[in-house]
């Protein structure tokens, strides 16, 4: 008797036609979305998805419930199949198992059938451009493109097959989009042929863009930059232990501080002196190279300048180094070669953060009111009426990540052990996890009512616990143990329909606490505890935004709640209001294209500080008119970088100022009253003594 009207046996799996090879994608059914399913329903769904997505879907069962789908397919068809599977999971509990198992026979739609057939014929027609030109077919337009000499004749030559693969497989998207054949003639020449001269010219431009991408990565790759701003205030660097209020004290556990020398400049004098033009040129060059490298890569990018506590990695700087001091030159060389460092997102603990906010509110000669969330939010009439934007960020382990088999099989006691093989240190282990980021914002209106925005989803690189860092520029204020870090972080944006229903359900249930007091020291959001989701980390941000007068730059004072922290800590971010607009081009960047930024320096560092102006059109230089192919040749600094650094130094004065400020009729102490300092033991520096002053 057939079992199609009932559930399959426990642990049953429908074997696919291509059984034996691993599936191309997994889609797991979260426990809270599972229901008893009849076998004939799974057969009907598999048949339907096979027709609509051209993918084979295999279901895995456990106690009459589907627990996982294995998807076999390729390309964009995998995304289509995953979207339909996620839709079925979300709606599965809304119907009974009997009604869901009924055979569905929708009415015939002639228009839908016609357009589907046309799309299928068009897809098959474009597939022919991935193969050689058919014999006997006359193609009217052909051009031959030579490989650039600066790449082919370099000491370490790069040829097309090194960049695009042996058969130029990386150019398949250009072949299909532009409907041309791209054929290698020899090691350094290719032929582009097609039926339309406009499409051939378009393919040539896209090919040149891919070449420029290879040239940029070869000759103009971004370089790390460490610059000590207060280097004329001391000669030696003392290594100290991080303070106890830090949310994370394990990965970076040592703070370097410049020991003040009485025969050198007064502490903080560098903020009034400004930077030398060669330093400004170096910073401008480093920013330009990082942005030029990113303009060819698709993804979500966030460009900001954060001011935070500066710390050294605990891996190559053990805790036994705490208390030691090193010459400033040796310390800087170690930073550039072997020691990992980072400007943390946090700057002050809770109480000092409140005083930081008071100093920013009182800085009316530098700051002005602005909207808290770019195009959204409400612009307050004065600085002291600024209301924060709220943001919640949660990082989860991907529920649909591929399972890595780590099972160790028992061996018979009489069987000899396997022969040990030499491990190759250069071969990296396969990543064992993949992380998904869920981000939700709340913005306010004129009445002070906060509205929850649409959740956004991102995917991190496999095996990495944070965004990709595309810029490494650190300007150190070692006397304070802090640094300005220019950060360009990137993640892969995810469509909502490609996200696991468990994550979508979590985002829908996150809500702001009722009658929440913005002056409260507790977190502002509450969310459910979903057992099927494994959270990696998270953070709640309360962001106060202020505009820098006569510029488009904004200062963000961020109050952050980290896991297992009762009180928040505070940080400072600086960004331009147009940076997000320019970088959003990269979220939907097609293959063979580059972001249309014109002159990168004037676009991201406008001379007037307000709006960028593209003064040159994209021509033969492919939109990078000022990109030079040597890190040793630096163009002179422009007014844009001068203005930005001037504002950063003024902001540093406000952040590190002491004393009290007056807001209305109330005086707020910006630092805790200091007790009479106790005598501290002298810190020995080789053969001389220097008393450290805090």
From TrEMBL:
Residues 282-607 form the DUF7905 domain. Residues 1-10 have a biased composition (Pro residues). This is DUF7905 domain-containing protein. Residues 1-21, 409-428, 669-694 are annotated as: Disordered. Residues 669-685 have a biased composition (Basic and acidic residues). It comes from Trematosphaeria pertusa.
């Amino acid at each position: 008797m057939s079992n199609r009207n009932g559930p399959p046996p426990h642990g049953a799996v429908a074997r696919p036609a291509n059984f034996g090879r691993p599936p191309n994608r997994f889609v797991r059914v979260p426990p809270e979305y599972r229901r008893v399913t009849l076998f004939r329903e799974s057969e009907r769904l598999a048949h339907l998805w096979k027709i609509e997505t051209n993918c084979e879907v295999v279901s895995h069962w456990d106690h009459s419930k589907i627990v996982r789908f294995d998807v076999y397919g390729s390309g964009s068809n995998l995304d289509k199949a995953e979207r339909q599977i996620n839709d079925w999971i979300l709606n599965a509990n809304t119907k009974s198992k009997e009604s869901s198992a009924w055979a569905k026979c929708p009415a015939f739609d002639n228009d839908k059938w016609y357009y589907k057939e046309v799309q299928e014929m068009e897809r098959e027609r474009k597939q022919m451009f991935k193969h050689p030109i058919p014999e006997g077919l006359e193609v009217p337009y052909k051009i031959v493109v030579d490989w650039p000499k600066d790449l082919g004749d370099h000491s370490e030559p790069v040829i097309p097959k090194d960049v695009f693969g042996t058969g130029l497989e990386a150019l398949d998207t250009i072949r299909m989009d532009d409907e041309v054949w791209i054929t290698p003639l020899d090691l350094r020449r290719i032929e582009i042929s097609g039926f339309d001269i406009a499409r051939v010219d378009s393919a040539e431009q896209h090919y040149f863009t891919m070449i420029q991408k290879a040239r940029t990565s070869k000759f103009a790759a971004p370089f790390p930059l460490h610059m000590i701003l207060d280097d004329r205030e001391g000669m030696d660097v003392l290594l100290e232990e991080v303070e106890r209020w830090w949310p994370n004290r394990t990965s970076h556990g040592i703070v370097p501080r410049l020991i003040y020398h009485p025969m050198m400049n007064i502490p903080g004098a560098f903020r009034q002196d400004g930077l030398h033009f060669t330093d400004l040129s170096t910073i401008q060059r480093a920013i330009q190279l990082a942005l030029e490298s990113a303009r060819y890569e698709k993804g979500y990018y966030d460009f900001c300048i954060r001011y935070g506590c500066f710390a050294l990695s605990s891996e190559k700087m053990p805790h036994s180094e705490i208390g030691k001091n090193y010459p400033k030159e040796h310390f800087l060389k170690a930073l550039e070669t072997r020691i990992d460092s980072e400007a943390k997102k946090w700057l002050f603990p809770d109480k000092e953060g409140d005083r930081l906010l008071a100093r920013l509110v009182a800085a009316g000669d530098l700051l002005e009111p602005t909207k808290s969330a770019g195009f959204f939010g409400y612009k307050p009439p004065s600085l002291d009426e600024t209301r924060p934007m709220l943001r919640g960020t949660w990082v989860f382990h991907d529920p649909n990540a591929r399972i890595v088999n780590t099972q160790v099989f028992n061996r018979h006691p009489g069987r000899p052990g396997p022969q040990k093989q030499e491990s190759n240190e250069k071969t990296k282990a396969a990543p064992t996890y993949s992380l998904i980021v869920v981000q939700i914002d709340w913005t306010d209106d004129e009445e002070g009512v906060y509205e929850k925005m649409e959740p956004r989803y991102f995917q991190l690189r496999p095996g990495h616990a944070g965004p990709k860092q595309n810029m490494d520029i650190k300007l150190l204020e070692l006397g304070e143990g802090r640094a300005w870090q220019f950060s360009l972080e990137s993640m892969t944006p995810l469509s909502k329909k490609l996200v696991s229903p468990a994550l979508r359900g979590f985002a829908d249930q996150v809500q702001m606490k009722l009658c929440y007091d913005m002056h409260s020291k507790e977190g502002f959001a509450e969310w459910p505890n979903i057992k099927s989701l494994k959270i990696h980390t998270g953070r709640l941000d309360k962001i106060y935004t202020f505009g820098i007068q006569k510029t488009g730059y904004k200062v963000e004072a961020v109050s952050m709640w980290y896991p297992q922290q009762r009180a928040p800590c505070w940080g400072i971010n600086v960004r331009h209001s147009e940076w997000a607009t320019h970088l959003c081009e990269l979220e939907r960047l097609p293959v063979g294209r580059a972001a249309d930024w014109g002159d990168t320096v004037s676009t991201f560092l406008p001379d007037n500080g307000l709006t960028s102006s593209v003064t040159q059109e994209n021509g033969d230089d492919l939109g990078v008119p000022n990109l030079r192919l040597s890190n040793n040749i630096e163009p002179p600094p422009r007014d844009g970088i001068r203005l930005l650094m001037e504002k950063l130094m003024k902001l540093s004065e406000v952040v590190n100022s002491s004393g009290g400020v007056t807001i209305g009729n109330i005086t707020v102490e910006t630092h805790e009253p200091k007790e009479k300092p106790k005598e501290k033991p002298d810190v020995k520096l080789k053969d001389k003594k220097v008393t450290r002053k805090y």
